[in-house]
Design goal:
Elements lengths: L2 E2 L1 H6 L10 H14 L8 E2 L6 E2 L3 H7 L11 H10 L3 H7 L1 E7 L9 E11 L2 E12 L2 E14 L8
Parallel strand pairs: 1-5
Antiparallel strand pairs: 2-3, 4-5, 5-6, 6-7
């Protein structure tokens, strides 16, 4: 299981004082990800299914969006969500497919969804990461990810 240190992951972004400003968070995270060339043309292939997924800025902006996507989350979940962004490629590669070709009730004849679930460790917490993928003809796009804290496991600590 992949292990992450929250402080190290959050240090790359300048988010102090911005946690309640989801637009400010979006702008800063996207600025850093572009600078680090996070968005590439390469497709991420899920090892278990062969399904390929691309990540673009629109998906990151959506996952850090209004309401329960980011804006209204408790600060701890906001931090977890940001800290997992750089690991999304690894999560997609190793995730379990939960449901495939789920009908999009919001936009008929547009695209369907696929839902994946993966796990990783941040500090001493095992997290479940749920990823939603938009399935379009020719390419599948990362759309949003959610975090559920599964359990605290002291021996998983990413700190010495």
């Amino acid at each position: 299981m992949k292990k992450i240190c929250m402080a190290e992951e959050l240090a790359r972004y300048n988010l102090d004082g911005k946690w309640n400003d989801y637009v400010g968070v979006q702008k800063e995270v996207l600025r850093v990800l572009r600078k680090e060339e996070f968005f590439t043309k390469e497709e991420i292939i899920n090892r278990k299914t062969g399904i390929s997924v691309k990540i673009n800025a629109k998906g990151i902006k959506e996952t850090l969006g209004t309401g329960k996507r980011f804006q209204m989350l408790p600060k701890t979940l906001k931090k977890y969500k940001i800290a997992t962004i750089k690991s999304l490629k690894w999560i997609i590669e190793n995730a379990e497919l939960i449901k495939d070709d789920v009908e999009n009730i919001h936009e008929k004849n547009g695209y369907n969804f696929a839902y994946f679930r993966g796990e990783l460790v941040i500090d001493d917490s095992v997290l479940k990461v749920r990823i939603t993928v938009k399935k379009k003809i020719g390419v599948n796009w990362f759309w949003i990810h959610n975090i559920d804290q599964k359990e605290k496991v002291p021996n998983y600590s990413t700190h010495p």
